[in-house]
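Why do we care about 3D structure at all? Because function follows from shape, and shape follows, mostly, from sequence. That is the central idea of this module. The next example makes it concrete: a single protein chain, its amino acid sequence, and then its structure expressed as tokens.
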Amino acid sequence: MNGITIREATEQDRDAIRAIEEAAFGQDGEARLVELLVGASDDVLELVAERDGELVGHVLFSRLMVETRNRSFAAVALAPLAVSPAAQGQGIGVALVEEAHRRLRAAGETLSVVLGDPAYYGRFGYAHESAAGFESDYQGEALQAISWGEAPASGRLVYAPAFQEL
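And the structure:
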């Protein structure tokens, strides 16, 4: 993509990440979620998009557990994804998610869940049909999943504690 570098987030990026999240969502809930997830070491993968030395996008995947009667299965939750308002509509969010998916698959992750716009996240392969069998406080059309290999299709989704703190 034109002049965009995607890389792992660093501690030096914290203020810029907060600014991107607040600008993209118009409030600080997602920025606080990022800080709580990272502070509790519940982050699995955190990427930023940089252009000309300035951060313009951010995505975070945190640990999610799928609990069944007799076992627990590690998965990831995509939340949040944000692009600076001035940089939206340029494919930066798509590039962040696609690169994150590539890295997650390479690391052996097999299930990702997102709560978001089905039209947007459907382009990556997320589907409500893939998440419909899960018990979740967020169950509904916006709850979607994608799997890359053997992954459960049912069970209770247990998000990192930061999600309950908001």
